[in-house]
């Protein structure tokens, strides 16, 4: 079997999610994939940077999640890399999510894709969009913390 890119943890992460949204809750959902798609996911050939989730007719779906075609797969009839895929969740969770995202400004944000017990899972976050000034404040706080860590590290080097 081929060596996976990242055996521990996430195969794909949406790094912009924490920058663009205040994530309040997270939910785990299974992904409905074909045989060649799961092989590509296991090889970390998945991107959720532009992906978003919706709920229609009591079912959850993810749109624009890109899964690259498997090299050794069906070359004569490859699947669409960005097709809409169904998410596997319990009905009670879907109803809870539906009630939450109907509130003003809330949306479902895919956070990361990972493998658990041999199955592909997607971590969904319920997020409220940040305003531009919130993003600037978050960036300033992160920069200040980084500067503090750098100064402390330099002081520890001098003390040794």
Could you name the key traits of this structure?
about 160 residues; 9 strands; alpha+beta; seven-stranded antiparallel beta sheet; 4 helices; single chain; disordered N terminus
Describe the structure in your own words.
This protein is α+β, with helices and mostly antiparallel strands and 160 residues long. It contains 4 helices and 9 strands; from the N terminus they run βαβαβββββαββα. It has helices spanning 17-20, 35-42, 91-101, 132-159, and strands spanning 12-13, 21-31, 46-47, 52-56, 59-63, 66-67, 85-88, 106-116, 119-129. Strands 1-8-9-2-7-5-4 form a 7-stranded antiparallel β-sheet. A two-stranded antiparallel sheet has the order 3-6. The longest helix is centred in the last third of the chain and has 28 residues, at 132-159. The model is unreliable at 1-8 (pLDDT under 50).
Distance between the termini: 46 Å
In which order are the strands of the major sheet placed? 1-8-9-2-7-5-4
Beta strands, count: 9
Number of alpha- plus pi-helical segments? 4
Succession of helices and strands: EHEHEEEEEHEEH
In short:
By secondary structure, this protein is α+β, with helices and mostly antiparallel strands.
SSE topology sketch:
Elements: E1 12-13, H1 17-20, E2 21-31, H2 35-42, E3 46-47, E4 52-56, E5 59-63, E6 66-67, E7 85-88, H3 91-101, E8 106-116, E9 119-129, H4 132-159
Antiparallel strand pairs: 1-8, 2-7, 2-9, 3-6, 4-5, 5-7, 8-9
